[in-house]
Amino acid sequence: xxxxxxxxxxxxxxxxxxxxxxxxxxxxxxxxxxxxxxxxxxxxxxxxxxxxxxxxxxxxxxxxxxxxxxxxxxxxxxxxxxxxxxxxxxxxxxxxxxxxxxxxxxxxxxxxxxxx
Length: 116
Description:
Blueprint: E1 2-7, E2 10-12, E3 18-26, E4 31-39, E5 46-52, E6 58-60, E7 68-73, E8 78-83, E9 92-100, E10 104-106, E11 110-114
């Protein structure tokens, strides 16, 4: 089993920045990819960004490309999402996801609200 704990959400003004963190514990050796998704009420959970843990390979949704950066610290089993130039449409609950060989895991989510 893998446990994921997100932190770093909050209220920020448009144009501001936030950094989300996702700390993994448990059978972390089985994880090969970590990602961030987000969800707003009444909508499907959508992909935001992902990173391979064995390389620097990353991928982003078009809506966040150039504004968000995903990174990792393998020594701390932690993945980060640096979010810059935030827009009101970035408001959502952000979820961390870990893909292992036979399972996928989700964190509990952290609320990000972009509003003036």
